[in-house]
Automatic annotation (TrEMBL):
UniProt lineage: unclassified sequences, metagenomes, ecological metagenomes
Domain GCVT N-terminal: 58-287
Organism: marine metagenome
UniProt xrefs under InterPro entries: GcvT/YgfZ/DmdA, GCVT_N, TrmE/GcvT-like
Pfam family membership, one: GCV_T
This protein's name: GCVT N-terminal domain-containing protein
């Protein structure tokens, strides 16, 4: 690879569509229904599941985003991609393609899960929602899972499809205050971590989950095709004003993930097993159902190979130098 490529950062810009540029090349770059909220801030986008997710917004620095999610509340449109798994064999299929035991999940609950190749290397991870006994959504991180699903579904009575759902995160210490003010009726109760609920916001029924990877208090809302996305987004945005809500992009979570020791696809690929990246403890040793990659994992080195460090000064943002006794020892 040419050095100039490795030293460059490539982004997608939002430009006026005046008819002078062909639109067919944008078919695989899908904007979030609420991305219009980002346009006043000269956004730069990256692709995540072929969905555009804001990489940079001009009104806020990376460190300002960090402190907003630590001290107040943030609003972030994501590139997470929910895929629907439904049918009489939905649970059997999910247990086949995901490493953790899906049969333990109750309706109305979510769980962290991940998919593996046959040799035990990781494909991607995400949050799986059990919406009914025979219906799941897997809100996946960046990665090619749809074709992987199709390769393992042939003998089962299950339908795999894109339900056209988009995810936005509300995270930070004041996030629950925003939810209480945004809803038309009662606040969901009980509201445990990984719970699913339906609430009314701006007269719309909205599916929300008590999830997020900010290592802070937070929740996510799922915009379905029948929802009035603008009405929902505007109501939540208005509710957050008195709590100092700000619109953020990808950088808001990078430092928090580092501090929390949370893995992302940037830390794993097809060459790493769950044990390599500190995720081995998530596996259910007593899972009865076989899953793709299981036999390989049983033979692999199960020692965790992740290490932590204590940061005394500054924010552990991605790409910053690590110094010990004034000597730079890494990034």
């Amino acid at each position: 690879m040419h050095e100039s490529i490795s030293l460059s950062r490539f982004t997608i810009k939002a430009l006026p569509n005046d008819g002078a540029r062909p639109r067919e090349l944008s078919a695989n770059m899908k904007p979030h229904p609420l991305s219009y909220m980002e346009l006043p801030f000269d956004p730069e986008y990256s692709l995540y599941n072929s969905r555009m997710t804001p990489e940079h917004l001009s009104h806020v620095s990376d460190d300002e985003q960090y402190w907003a999610v630590r001290q107040k509340v943030i609003f972030r449109n994501t590139g997470e991609f929910p895929v629907q798994i439904a049918g009489p064999d939905a649970e059997v299929f999910a247990n086949r393609v995901f490493a953790r035991d899906v049969s333990r999940m109750k309706v109305g609950r979510c769980a962290y899960n991940f998919a593996l190749y046959h040799h035990g290397g990781m494909i991607t991870d995400g949050v799986i929602l059990r919406l009914a006994e025979e219906k799941f959504w897997m809100a996946q991180a960046d990665g090619e899972l749809m074709k992987w699903y199709m390769a393992h579904v042939a003998d089962l009575d299950v339908a795999i499809c894109d339900p056209g759902v988009w995810v936005t995160q509300i995270q930070g210490p004041r996030s629950m205050d925003v939810l209480r003010d945004a809803t038309d009726g009662d606040f969901p109760s009980p509201w445990r971590y990984f719970d699913i609920a339906e609430v009314s916001i701006a007269g719309e029924q909205v599916l929300i989950t008590r999830t997020g990877f900010s290592n802070e208090l937070g929740w996510e809302f799922y915009l379905r095709p029948g929802n009035n996305a603008e009405a929902i987004g505007e109501r939540i945005w208005e509710a957050g004003q008195k709590y100092g809500i700000i619109l953020t992009g990808v950088p808001v979570f990078r430092a928090r993930r580092i501090e929390a020791g949370l893995m992302s696809q940037a830390e794993f690929d097809e060459t790493t097993t769950p044990f390599d990246v500190g995720l081995g403890h998530f596996l259910h040793a007593d899972k009865v159902a076989d899953f793709v990659g299981r036999s390989s994992l049983e033979e692999t080195d199960k020692r965790s190979r992740t290490f932590g460090m204590r940061v005394r000064d500054g924010i552990a943002q991605l790409g910053r130098n690590i110094t010990i006794n004034s000597k730079t020892v890494g990034k």
